[in-house]
Each structure stands twice: as structure tokens, then as C-alpha cells.
Amino acid sequence: MSGQAPRLRAGLIGLGAMGRNHARVLSNLDGVELVGVVDPAGDSTGALRVPVLNTVAELLALKPDYAVVACPTALHEQVGLELAAAGVGALIEKPLAQSVEAATRLVHAFETAGVVAGVGHIERYNPALQSLRARLEAGELGDVYQVVTRRQGPYPHRIADVGVVMDLATHDIDLTAWVTGQRYTSVSARTVSRSGRLHEDMVAAVGQLADGTMVNHLVNWLSPLKERSTVITGARGCFVADTLTADLTFYANGAIDTEWEALRAFRGVAEGDMVRYAIPKREPLLVEHERFRDAVEGKESDIVTLRQALRTVEVSAAVLRSAEDGSTVALDRVGEPALTA
Questions:
Q1: CA gap 178, 230 in Å, rounded
Q2: Which residues form the GFO/IDH/MocA-like oxidoreductase domain (predicted)?
């Protein structure tokens, strides 16, 4: 139709479990045309109506405006550098890369190329966490004291190149820094590997944010119970976000006097009202794609930048380092983590 803006041409690299979801969203995304998918294993479902290619070079020949990188984490650097060199934007699945060094090279490559790039930290687009962040910014909780996250479930057999810290804990590290608006200043962690695989499958991490907020992350691949919980406690009560159901609940500190003598001297808080918020629940992956599409079009959009994602990789690397040698690792504002006694 004349007068219509031209559609952006998008590519997809990787057709695993997450890649298939990206393909579904891209195939129906307003203003975008999915022009090709790269996966040497082909399309096992036969549902795609676009070419399935063997190499990134073949995709680049189709002249995409941007590509979604959903291949294994170990390949992110290689694929990302190829896209940056070709001047093609990229939405890279989290984590940005499997090491601080690789992530840093990707940041420099895309910044030098001057093309839009972002990272798929999808929890930022979860309705419960978006509402929680807005309420924290509005001061509804008062001073924040503690952030506790629990993320556990069965082992995903598709993951073989990284452990639970880089694959799952990166969600919690990113969302904690984003929701609170604070950076990590130190972490201490313990990991175990009980499933016989190369990498860790359980981690317990304690951290501190720049404003003194305490942080605790419990993450594993060893539980039949699937749980995605974020609890933030502050001066006026606590918020509980369940990102599986996108529910947000507020538990207020009570202000009711008690006649029970044994409790009257207690100087803590009392149980108050509980509010469960009604939140519009759009699919986080669709919102993520809409925001990235807008960024590629040059519009103001709150995508997860590569530098933000690099910081998450730095904190994750510090978690692994702490678990390896039993130290507390202090995180500098810029550059490599610094080891403390």
C-alpha cells in the first residue's frame, strides 16, 4: 500500500527452544518481515515459511536490518562479531557471552560499527516486574532493605555450554540491578554440581548493592518444583513478584495497636493489609521484540544495552570466582572485578 513505511527485514540465528519462540513472534510482528533463519540442523517442525540456512553469511546475503541471536551462548561472540562487521543490528539472547572478555569484545564491536544492539534479558518485560519497578521508583516501599530471588526447576537438557549461573542466575542479577536501579558492589557464593555434568547446577549467592541493600539469590536445575520468585522488603512492607504467573502482591506493615503484653514491647513490624494488583499481562517476549524493533527504527526505546548486559556478565563471573576460591569479590564500577579478602 502506498504511503506505508517499509518493513524491517529481520533474521534469526538458532532454532532451539528459545529460537522457535523468537520465530513465532517475529513471524507476526508488526512492521517486521522475517526473511531467513540460520540453523545447520534445519527446521524439524517444518512450520517456517522462510528459508532455513546453514551459515550467517547466507543470512547476510539476504540483507537483514537486524538479527536475533538465539544460538548457544558459546557461539554468541563469533556470531555477534560477524553481524557487527556487516553493520547489522543484533538482539542477542542472554547472557551476552560466556565470559567477561568475550562480552567486552562484543560491546566494542557494535559500538564501533555504530549499529543498534541489545540483549534479551526478558524478565525486564515481565508485567509483574515492570509494575514493581514503577512502584519502587514512586517510593511506595520506602527505603529498600533486601532483595531475595528464588529460581529453580528441572534441568533443561538443551543447555550444555554453560552452568546455572550464566544461564539462569543472570536473570536474577539483571532484574535486581534494574528493578532497584542499583549496581552490585560485592558478591559471595557457593555452587555444587550434582547432576554429573561439567558445569554447576546449583548456586547460593549473597550480595550487596551500592546503596547497602542486601541481596540473596537461590538458583538451581535440581528441583521438580518450578519457581520464579522475587521478594523485595523495605521500610513499608514487602513486594512479592511471581514471574511465572506475572502476579504482584504487596504485604504492608501493620499499624494496629495490640493489647497482648508480650508483643507490645516488640520493636519490629506487624502484619498488615495484603494487596494483589491487577496488571495487564502482555507476553514479555512480544514486548521485548516491539521495544527492539522501535530502537532499530531510531525511536526512543528502553532496550537492554550491551553495556548493561556486560555488567551482568561481570557480576556472574564474580559469583563463579567466589564459589571457586571461597572469597568475597568486590566489583569495581568499571572494568574487572577486584578480589578482596
A1: 13
A2: 130-239
Adjacency order of strands within the sheet including 89-93: 52-53, 32-38, 8-13, 66-69, 89-93, 117-120
pLDDT in tens, 93-126: 999 999 999 999 999 999 999 999 999 999 999 9
What is the dihedral sign for C-alpha 261, 262, 263, 265? positive
What residues have CB less than 8 Å from 229, skipping those under 6 apart? 148, 149, 150, 151, 240, 241, 242, 243
Going along the chain from its start, the domains and CATH numbers come out as: 8-123+286-304 (3.40.50.720), 124-280+313-340 (3.30.360.10)
Cα–Cα dist 329/207, whole Å:
9
**pTM as predicted:** 0.90
pLDDT tens figures, 236-249: 999 999 999 999 99
